[in-house]
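Review box. Two proteins, two foldings.
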Amino acid sequence: MSSSFGTLFRISTFGESHCKAVGVVIDGCPPGFSLSTEDIQPQLNRRRPGQSALSTDRQEADQVIILSGTENGKTLGTPIALQVANKDHRPKDYGDMLDIPRPSHADFTYQMKYGIRASSGGGRASARETIGSVASGAVASKILQEKFNIDIVAWVSSVGQIDASPIDSNVITRSDVDTTIIRCPDHEAAAKMEKLVTELKERGDSVGGVVSCVIRNVPIGLGEPTFEKMEAKLAQAMLAIPATKGFEIGSGFAGTRMQGSQHNDPFTKKGDRLGTTTNNSGGIQGGITNGEPIQLRIAFKPPATISLPQETVDFSGNSAILEAKGRHDPCVVNRAVPIVESMAALVVLDMLLRQEARKAVQF
């Protein structure tokens, strides 16, 4: 199993949905950097379950503990271990799922691959695993903001058939995003989204959506062609998030409907550097950042675990009716916002450190 990500700023996450704790070990964090739990906890609070009527009813404080890698509030350059305890877990809710794989869930594939699985809560396939990514991403975001003035903001741009109005990605802030519990800054669309998710939760059904993200003030030159292009690493990071099914950068699939004369981004002088008048490239050309904002969109499918009766079969192939018990998200996009931001931060910081290392070697 691959539970590590990154090259110079490298993380290794651990834990299952219903084990004693989940967390992450960060290797490669620069020394002498101010770090406390207060720097990490806000993003975990935005990700945690039970934060609103739109999410799962599971109640977890998700209080992070720094186990190693700091002293007197400063990073030591040694591995940083972060841990969050699991407390409100109910393994008995998953009794029926021991023998019946949930449709479109990872129950079947994990069992077939390993011959065993954590049937309680989904194990490593659960979104609970993303705590490690969010905690380490909060560390990366702090470094990016304070040392390089790089800003990352994600928001919900659609739920089901409901689309938000276009958002000015040059000025949107996390405070703007958090003005609604669905994390959509378009309040009119947000009200419709919240109504839909509430109705589906009451019916025991679920719905998908799209999270958009902008990464601002990214320097020119990040990305490692050919196989670790910036957009390739961002795609890997985003599609590693549970329930993701699609990734777009810049014009994305809409660009296929345009002609080159429409899609090309003409260059212009912006202060002391060249920039572009449009940004269909999404801030990346040839796998390397061009100094413009990086613009992403990530598609999340409807959560697989629903309480409506589903005709399926058990692991032996016998017909069965599955009515999933337990507490589950009817839609994941509002809780996915900090996860997207965190994964983006991990990629950008790692690529930035790799570029800085290259610049430090002069011949």
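Next protein.
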Amino acid sequence: MIPMVDLKRQYHKLKNEIDQGIQNALENAQFILGPNVQAFEKETAANLKTEHSVSCASGTDALHLALLAAGIGPGDEVITTTFTFIATAEAICYIGATPVFVDIDPKTFNMDIDAVEAVITKKTKAIIPVHIFGQPVDMPRIMQLAEKHGLQVVEDCAQSYGADIKGKMTGTFGIAGCHSFFPSKNLGCYGDGGMITTNDSSIADRLRILRNHGSFERYHHNIIGYNSRLDELQAIILRVKLKHIEEFNRERRRAAHYYSKQLAGLVTPPQEDGIGTHVYHQYVTLTDKRDAIMKKLTENEIACAIYYPIPLHKQPVFAEQFKSLSLPISERVAAQCMALPIHPELTNQQIDQIVTVIKSAI
């Protein structure tokens, strides 16, 4: 069997260090905002070249808290892509703001920046660019557009840890960058976890209060906050994996480039736009023979998936609100997209096996 991601194999590679770190934490019995959480925040800030790294309980919470800290709220409009995971839009709705969906670039699957400018109104307060599947959005253009219209930028980096544009990391362009440490991510823990990066000290201070019941000092609560703290044991796992993140991303790129060479003429492979460094959280192809290929892959015990089958403006929760909205590129991509296994441990021999099965299906 070839899984989408091989966490078991990766764990055995790092087992000794992870197990020792967890054992030490159990002996020390410091579990909430403990020394490993604090160390992880410092290490990620250094790794991503940002002033502040504030951990939280999930990538969804990262988006939610970042928008709150940025002062976005009821009556505001936030522009984002329709081709992303629901969490991006959920966070906008949590704060009482209104999501405004735009279509995508057919090659990168990232938001169409020209489409963003076309939907800016007096109510628009922020843009959430999503670095989908690990491909950086053209952030210099986004920031130029945001400055022109006086908008905040909150980056959704749930799939792009370690991606950069000319050495500047995703998550460091806007007022905040929101990261997810879901197990399958490029940098993933063994449960849920998240983080917000920012170069704004006032935003960082507000985030630290928001994630901890509105409290900076124990039993003194300045505002209504949330219980959104990264678990100490997850921080241990993430600290171990952080040491290998450049290697992990390099191996993902190696696997992706080999895939693209072998799949030429069979399906449309993902395309890099040359603006930033793609870190391939997912390897998403396009094909009009998706059902036949996925059936054959499944029969051969090869994992595959559809990211994403339904654009957000077509999801049941939003369908009535956006019933007159047509975003044809996202709708076409959703009907043809197919994700293949991608992870640092994936070998060229396994890719050859996958490609052979795809050829037989076609």
